[in-house]
Amino acid sequence: MTDIDRTDIDRTDINRPEGEWDGLAPHTSLVIACYRVGPYLPAFLRSLDEQVAAHAGYELIFVIDGCPEDSEEVVRAWMPTTDYAVRVVTKENGGVASARNTGLAWARGTWVSHPDPDDRLDPRYLLEIEQARERFPDETMYVGRAILTSPDGSTIGHTLDARYVGAPSSVVDLHREPRKIHTLGGVAFFRHDVIVRHGLRFDEQILQSSDTDMIGHFLLCNGARYVLVPGAEYFYLRRADASSIVSKHSGNMSRYASLFGISHRGMLDRAGDECPPWLANLLLYFVFMLFRRNRRVNTPVDLASEEQLALIRERLTENLRQIGAANIQGFDVFAVPLEMRFAWLAAVEEVTSSPVERLRWHPERGAWRAAVYGSASDFPELQVVVGDAEVLETRSRGIEFLGKTWLYQLVLLVRMERGDEVGLASTDPRFTLDLDGTILKAGAVDERAGRRPPIDVKPAAPKAGPATTTAASPAPTPAPGSAPRPAAARWRRLARAVTGSARTAVPPQAGVPAGPAATRGETWVFVTGDDADASPSQSELLYEYVREQVSDVEVRFVTEAGSEAESRLRRADVGCVTAGSPEHAALLRRADLLVTSRMSRRAHTPLPGQGIPREWRVALLPAGGVGRLLHRDSWASQADLITVSSAIELVRAGGPYGNQAYLPSEVALTGLPSHDRLEELRAPAEHIVVLPGWRADTLRPSDPASAGRAVDEFRALPFVAAWRQLLESAELAALATREGRRVRLVLPSGVGPEVFSPPPGVEVVPQDDLLAALASAAVLVTDYSSARALDLAYLGRPTVYLQVDREAVLGAPDSARSRAAGFETSGFGPVVTSPEEAQRAVADVLGALPDLYAERIDRAFAYRDGKARDRILAALRG
């Protein structure tokens, strides 16, 4: 037995008499850690019994790690029925690393492996490994093929699976083939004596990926070699827990502190002064996964506290410096976005040179969008030195990861012929451009830098299993080859002008960029976005207006079949085009403009695979305004025009200091179509409107997966229970009666009144009447609906935010999401955490609105004149 502490063991049992057990000499020990795997064990055990390899050469060690369910019972019931030698060890819960170490202490085989009991093995899995050991007897590590499978049985492609495609069993020398890294521990077989000789064990301080840590240390001890065995197929199940109406997400950011600070640091220390390229690839694989996740809109990174993120950044930065710039430049397992690669490089050394990355073509302006990267925000002037071109506009923005700006990107708009080769040069020798300053796509940059194409990801093929406003005049055209300096002063003056008072008249052209003029016969396509279930969406409101006011443009609305938007439009006797239909394809081939309330794939590449390149402009009407985290939405940055309602948004989206990718000419200070509708519907402030939200990670009763669920399951959700308590409050009812008000409830889309069970005195408002309900509201009670709070603020009225689960939704008080939401710092009313507080807050703001909230409401908008659609139309037409 390995010398590992076994004091936490409660009991161990075997399925053979002790004398017979002691006489066994297994060549392989399978250590199987069990925790909450009861439902998956029967399939796993069956796959063990179906192995065609001789069972006599194996011992199975099941470690029951303090299981609160029936995993132990399932294993014990199976033990007498199998011809394998089986040991069951029960212990207090200590985590998967602890359980595997316990199993290693009992292992007697020359070889050890640790498959997961929620997966299953191909019948030839063990035999294929045995045959590979016979063919390559001097090797000390063998790796089977992990085939990722979804709960429905379909396979999922993953990057590292490319090693196996069409490959025979073969020795991998990572010093020669550093891209062939391995990360999945369940399919690895290790020589037990190597583990013992080097004192290796699963690190119990690591919250996740302790198996990858073991692999890394083992490879550092055995000369970085393993045998690849493609025929040994292991079906790795990606779980989907359908037992709960709330999704389970792996959002524990503290695991990255242990991953970088303990696991990766330990491997780097074992490697010594020089980090080998294969180890750099292994470590950067996980760094890439985190950074890629951080680029998404909804990411656990945004829930983490600044203290957590600071520790992760500190440990990661130390590791990146040890990995080194050369290894970072050489990492090509994935197609790493240049902004990400340069962020890593900026952690190692000052970035004073950069390629010029070609981002996307703007057909209406005959220009390429491009970017360069540097450690300083103040970039030198860039001039055209090769080709007939002109730098039209620039803007510097910060590139943020893990709550910090790592480096800066200079975004350029370069007028040129689409297929021309154009080169730029810096006017300051302290900052230079790589690759002769040629404007290149990221793939071409990688190729010229010597990086190979990224590993192809393919699913495995297993054997089984109208304008009334004048637009702003264009900025003076810069001289050919010159780049204008950031207009920070102009943005600051504009911000002061429009934030002095929301009632102050602002020149109509302020913030409305001059764009390309629409020509007679243009086709404009409207689609919905995130607010597709809202009543109605920003796109619909503008569509109605354009149809009435514009006669020289063909306007069509595209909706998803069966969507709320389709139903609303058809009820209004408005024809619409079904998304994905032949009519939709024909429409896109002649489209000049697409208007959406969320920039998504449907706006950028509506019909992938049909050979319809994007030649249309895209206007984005964000329903909830431009938030601090909008730069995370990679699709949103693809818009050619974005409308905003306030000077704060104007500066945030196109000013010189934010993280957004828009150029100043692409941001229009207009207001939103819903504001005009509210102006038309404006009524005396009378009622208390209650607008509960629904959590993104929670099923709705209308979802197909909710079929058969009792309404009590939904009523028991903490946030639903809190809203029901508020609606049933005698104090709220008495307040409404005393002041002659009604309490009006607007239900979340897809949720019926039975879930919130409003009492008789509460009026349920249909979704179609939402804006009318807001127009007569004296106060809004919602939770996290910034869009609807913004609507009510437009009318000059407050919101009470009832947030009983704010930590689950917003994360830590100083998290990026909490700071971006800004309910306490920029909200239009008090934030409370209980129904009792909400009832008192409603009474308080109806009695006398505190100056703090009144001033925020007053300053929130540049315009309150009912002409937002006119300004948007002016911006669209240019």
Short description:
The protein is an alpha/beta fold.
Question: What descriptors fit this protein?
Answer:
878 residues, alpha/beta, seven-stranded parallel sheet, 32 helices
Fraction of helical residues:
25-40%
CA radius of gyration is: 31 Å
Q: Give the end-to-end Cα distance, rounded to a whole number of Å.
A: 78 Å
Helix/sheet category: alpha/beta
Average pLDDT taken over every residue = 87
Task: Describe the global form.
Answer: globular
**Would you count the extended β strands for me?**
33
Q: What low-confidence regions span 5 or more consecutive residues with pLDDT below 50?
A: 464-520
Beta strand %: 15-25%
Q: Figure out the total of helices.
A: 32
Summarize the biggest pleated sheet: 11 strands, mixed
Task: Give a written overview of the molecule.
With 878 residues, this protein is of the alpha/beta class. Strands 1, 2, 3, 4, 5, 6, 7, 8, 9, 10 and 11 form an eleven-stranded mixed β-sheet that branches. A seven-stranded parallel β-sheet has the order 23-22-21-24-25-26-27, with helices on both faces. Strand 7 (141-149) and strand 8 form a beta hairpin. Helix 22 (718-727) crosses helix 30. It is globular. Residues 464-520 have low confidence and may be disordered.
